[in-house]
Amino acid sequence: MQDFTLKVGVVGAGAVGPVLGAAFLQAGHHLVGITARSEASRERVEAMLPQTPVLDIEELLSQSDLVMFCVRDGELRALVEDCALAGWFRAGQLVGHTAGSLGLAVLEPATALGAIPLALHPAQTFSGTSLDLARLRGVHWAVSAPVPLLAVAQALVLDLEGVPHVLSDAARGHYHAALAHGANHLVTVVTQAMRTLSAAGVNQAAEFLEPLLKTALERALQEGEKGLSGPILRADTHTIRRHLAALDRGALVAEPDTEPGKPLDDLADIPETYRACARATAKRAYARQALSDEQYLELLDSLDSR
């Protein structure tokens, strides 16, 4: 528990805002309120924060020592500018946001009025439910703040049982691209694998894949690129061509099937993803000298074949 208590206001009741508000409450801070524009947002607040008032943004800012903007990255700048033009920020007020791709610069309109800017982004995905509270513990956060206030920003993350990492505005592009590429694209690749497995006639594709994917992720995190296995590393162009031929044919149930011509799903998006990921994998394997020149060129040729 922290040695100081802040009056916290949360702007935005999407997937992140109510969870962050609940986390501040658990940490012992006072949650003065939250903004919620849509009916779905209000229902989310009622489920996560039933005792917390829904306020308009002017009233929220007037009552808050710390206001956290939990809105989409693309909406943040205009919202901060509007609040600044209305004169709703005040000197000494902590004004933070959770936009991963943005740093302190987006808060300059508030800073011009004497507010203290903070950028606090948790490296986690949110569902907007109470399950997120447990998932938030132990999460690593990107933290940006003026140097004299870095300790305060880090303390706020520690209050939420997170791990703070100081990050400059200049590094935000690489930082957020890494998270989106690793997490968002992971969902795409995994669900494509599930759809393809279902098209092969395998029931319960998620349960079937879970042990394999958990081990692959564990090896990637612990061993890096040395954890790679499969046909690319073996330069098995024959297998890769069979993969692509099957994917290019579309979604047919594997034998034995009583209706082999009946598609289970549209898999038209998957061959392109497979080829792109395979090329990237081959390029990295070649860079590590795990493939010879000849093997690398043969792999590229097999990926270009139709």
Give an account of the 3D structure:
With 306 residues, the chain is of the alpha/beta class. It has twelve helices and seven strands. It has helices spanning 17-26, 39-48, 57-63, 73-85, 108-111, 131-136, 150-159, 172-199, 205-223, 237-249, 270-287, 293-304, and strands spanning 7-11, 30-34, 66-69, 94-97, 116-122, 140-144, 163-166. A seven-stranded mixed beta sheet has the order 2-1-3-4-5-6-7, sandwiched between helices. Helix 7 (150-159) links the parallel strand 6 (140-144) and strand 7. Helix 11 (270-287) runs antiparallel to helix 12. The radius of gyration is 24 Å and the shape is elongated. The termini are far apart. The model is unreliable at 254-258 and 260-264 (pLDDT under 50).
Record the strand order, biggest sheet.
2-1-3-4-5-6-7
- What is the typical, i.e. mean, pLDDT? 93
Helix content: 40-55%
Low-confidence residue ranges: 254-258, 260-264
The count of helical stretches stands at: 12
CA(first)-CA(last) distance:
61 Å
Record the SSE blueprint.
Blueprint: E1 7-11, H1 17-26, E2 30-34, H2 39-48, H3 57-63, E3 66-69, H4 73-85, E4 94-97, H5 108-111, E5 116-122, H6 131-136, E6 140-144, H7 150-159, E7 163-166, H8 172-199, H9 205-223, H10 237-249, H11 270-287, H12 293-304
Parallel strand pairs: 1-2, 1-3, 3-4, 4-5, 6-7
Antiparallel strand pairs: 5-6
Helix pairs in contact: 8-9, 10-12, 11-12
